[in-house]
Amino acid sequence: MNTQPEVFTDVFGAAKLGPVTLRNRIIKAATFEAASPNALVTDDLIRYHQLPAAGGVGMTTVAYCAVAPGGRTDGWQIWMRPEAIPGLRRLTDAVHGEGAAISAQIGHAGPVANARTNKAPALAPIRFFNPLSMRFARKATKDDIRDVIAAHADAARLAIDAGFDAVEVHLGHNYLASSFLSPLLNRRTDEFGGSLENRAKVARGVVRAVRDAVDSHGAKQIAVTAKLTMTDGVRGGIPLDEALQTAKWLESDGGLDAIELTAGSSLVNPMYLFHGDAPLKEFAGAFKPPISWGMRMTGTKFLREYPYREAYLLRHARAFRAELTMPLILLGGITNRETMDKAMAEGFDFVAMGRALLAEPDLVNRIKADSAVRSLCTHCNKCMPTIYTHTHCVVTGAPDALTI
């Protein structure tokens, strides 16, 4: 008979994330807001993050802060450079004014990058055609890899200067570091290909560079987290056991304060992250021919449909919780108090919310006041195609952001 007392972690209690104290354990997931048309902060972008901050989240995460102009998924996204700092400082000040912390998601989109709108080459482990940009990503050289790793360190320093409390390193969704981890996308024969140990060198190198930059900055210590794909749901892609080994290496390297566990691929299988309806018609309407024609004809192969359920990534995430001791952030289908409490009971340290906060930026405060509150999000996913114009919930009309 188990006589150990049940451990209860209050999701609304204050919590430490590395050197940072959050007022609760609820994080607004890194999202693309479609609110930076000149690749700089706007009042619109500030409002996107001020709303959920006022609505009760412990921390909101700004996306997508690319480490280089060629690392953006589209040319209107922010990339980290001195010119962006004054606007980012206005943004962090506004969020801090609401009592929340703020993180910057930094990364390089790799083969997901839109070389056409970026007006810069996209990078990949091997030469790769991106049908959404109708351009080839070129094979990253060793110099390219070194430059990208250094750019992550520079971005972390700029994030500190801009007043961020944390940076989230993007190691997921087949962005550059994740594409190197994928056996399907990484067919190199040099020291960055072949074995998982070789394929993980980019991810580990990026995290190490960011940690060194943060530790050596001196003025302010911030948290360093990473978003890591557990599996991309693609045959021949990233399998769960390899992702778990990568996570173990990242834990032993000591560069991270937490890992946010994600799934799917922005490149080949985005719905594996979202679950729910696949808005094929709306996605096709967001593009011009010939991409829209191709989307209508073959879109079901790209937008596969996965039934929605609460905490739908928990099944995969349990394997990571069982093997790792470091803090973990559970993402995917977190919309009510019952699910939050379940995540806490299973040993996760934080939960991350995306679409539910898109529909209702004040949802966290409402759940705190009444545990019976349920999200208005219907998981129709029609918010997904709005990232090409101005991200919003088509059900409630609320402006916020969509996880990518």
From TrEMBL:
The NADH:flavin oxidoreductase/NADH oxidase N-terminal domain covers which part of the protein? 12-251
Record carries keyword Lipoprotein:
no
Q: Which InterPro entries match?
A: Aldolase_TIM, NADH_flavin_oxidoreductase, OxRdtase_FMN_N
Question: Which Pfam families does the entry mention?
Answer: Oxidored_FMN
Q: Which Gene3D superfamilies match?
A: Aldolase class I
Q: Which molecular function GO terms apply here? A: FMN binding; oxidoreductase activity
* UniProt source species: Mycolicibacterium bacteremicum (Mycobacterium bacteremicum)
Q: What does the UniProt keyword field contain? A: Flavoprotein, Oxidoreductase
Spell out the protein name for this chain: NADH:flavin oxidoreductase
Q: Which CDD domains match?
A: OYE_like_FMN_family
Q: Which SUPFAM superfamilies match?
A: FMN-linked oxidoreductases (SSF51395)
- PANTHER family tied to this protein: BINDING OXIDOREDUCTASE, PUTATIVE (AFU_ORTHOLOGUE AFUA_2G08260)-RELATED (PTHR43656)
Top-level lineage group: Bacteria
The answer on whether this UniProt entry bears the keyword Transmembrane helix reads no
